[in-house]
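Review form for a predicted model. The reviewer records the input and the model, then writes brief findings.
Reviewer: anonymous (R2)
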Amino acid sequence: MKSLPLPLRVAAGLAMTAVERARDLPTTLAGLPVTVVSQALQVSMRLQQQVTELAIKGDEALAALRPAEETPEWATFDEDIDDIDDEDDAPRTAFDRVEDPWSAEEHAIADTPTGPPASVENYDELSLPQLRARLRSFSVAELEELLAYERGTENRPSFVGMLTRRIATVRDQT
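Model under review:
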């Protein structure tokens, strides 16, 4: 049997492809939004990459036209600061304002209350309702002392919150 002419075979192939695509159309339509979003994201990423590449090339071109600063104004070095350490108006960097961790720990240990305030017996064993029942008889100074002790020891949020609110209430009443 003699083969059919090429244009007829191509037309039959196109017809079969159209039938196959028509059968797959419901599946393709379901995934179409995902495909469109995916392709849009790909185009967006490619565009961002190209813009970034252009910016890098532009930076390189501009860097060649202007010389780099010898010492940028924001850069400070230890040898630059040694001369002005004792002056009150000396600029201080963020590094200079950080407290030494060892001295911070020593201050924290020194500031930690050694025992519960004398105004409340067995403070550490009291439950929240038991402490609440006694709070009405305390002054602001005693309440602040209790709050400082609580923050320095167990720092329980419910106790800290209750003491803070009671201090505010007592201050508003006076």
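Findings: The two ends are 114 Å apart (CA to CA).
Further findings: The longest helix spans residues 6-65.
Recommendation: see findings above.
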